[in-house]
Amino acid sequence: MILVTGGAGFIGSHLCERLLGRGYEVLCLDNFNDFYDPALKEENVRAFLGHPCFTVVRGDILDRSLLTTIFSQYPIRKVVHLAAIAGVRPSLVDPARYVRVDVEGTVNLLEMTKKHGIEQFIFGSSSSVYGRRAEGPFSEDDPTDCQISPYATAKKAGELFCATYHQLYEVPVTILRFFTVYGPRQRPDMAIRKFAELMLRGKPIPLYSEGSSLRDYTYVDDCVDGIVAAIEKVFPFEIFNLGSGRTVPLKRVVELLSRHLGVEPQVDLLPEQPGDVPVTYADISKAKNLLNYEPKISLEEGICRFVEWLKARYSEPKIL
């Protein structure tokens, strides 16, 4: 059985769906919190709630007694830890929450992994650990000691605890640094979905730094390909970038959304935001070599798929 924390979230629900399709038993642990509308998370997992190999536990990774019960009652072999309080900008407002959930919660799960002899611990990290850099690509061997947001710092702290548990207790750990994952079920606060929904409602989109920021956009199916590859190939300790290996300016994303939505965007130009970085750019050569990771979905195709999904949601009576 594979435990997926945050399994009702964006990436987590796609991972659960993929694992079920490959014949795995999946235990989804999620607290369905109100960081964004919990109904969206309910919707994410509704399609496979009745699957005989799928179990949902509603609870928090900060609840140690719950974790003790889960690890004692279920035959968990591997942990994919995706549960987190996400988002750079909200972390500027409440850094302590990110320490509690993203750091303490990770340590709680590492403790369970150590105590119960779990075969593998996979930690969902972030490209934000690379901090503010002017150019790329970013390699897993690059220094990561200058984060510029509490969210990024919490993710880096989680990585350090993973490394410590490996060194002290020989916990097998794989760290995956995700680069701007997008696609169906994307969180509503993330730029692509936020912009698309504002455009559909005829409202202006906030474009920071005139849309000049460069991001390595990764379609969710490609990201899940990488996670599954990491699950199926255990390492003592490794770090991998999961990105597309290409950078695209934000204004290009707006152009693609405009074309596929058939809406001319209204743009509200704003200055650069604290905590934002000018560029993310993954060197994916290590993941290619060791995981046979090969992203397949171009940004153009990915945006088209995302818009098709979003339009289908907006055509439903409950959305209107």
Descriptive overview:
There is one protein chain. With 320 residues, the protein is α/β, with parallel strands linked by helices. Helix content is 42%, strand content 17%. Strand 5 (120-126), helix 6 (150-169) and strand 6 (173-178) form a beta-alpha-beta unit.
At a glance:
This protein has helices at 10-21, 38-46, 64-73, 88-93, 95-115, 150-169, 191-200, 220-231, 250-261, 285-291, 299-314; strands at 2-5, 26-30, 54-58, 78-81, 120-126, 173-178, 181-182, 205-208, 214-215, 218-219, 237-242, 248-249, 267-270.
Name of the CATH class: Alpha Beta
Mean pLDDT: 95
The N- to C-terminal Cα distance equals 39 Å
Q: How many distinct beta strands?
A: 13
Residues in β-strands, percent = 15-25%
**Radius of gyration of CA atoms, rounded to a whole number:** 19 Å
Helix/strand layout:
Blueprint: E1 2-5, H1 10-21, E2 26-30, H2 38-46, E3 54-58, H3 64-73, E4 78-81, H4 88-93, H5 95-115, E5 120-126, H6 150-169, E6 173-178, E7 181-182, H7 191-200, E8 205-208, E9 214-215, E10 218-219, H8 220-231, E11 237-242, E12 248-249, H9 250-261, E13 267-270, H10 285-291, H11 299-314
Parallel strand pairs: 1-2, 1-4, 2-3, 4-5, 5-6, 6-11, 7-10, 8-13
Antiparallel strand pairs: 9-12
Helix pairs in contact: 1-8, 5-6, 7-9, 9-11
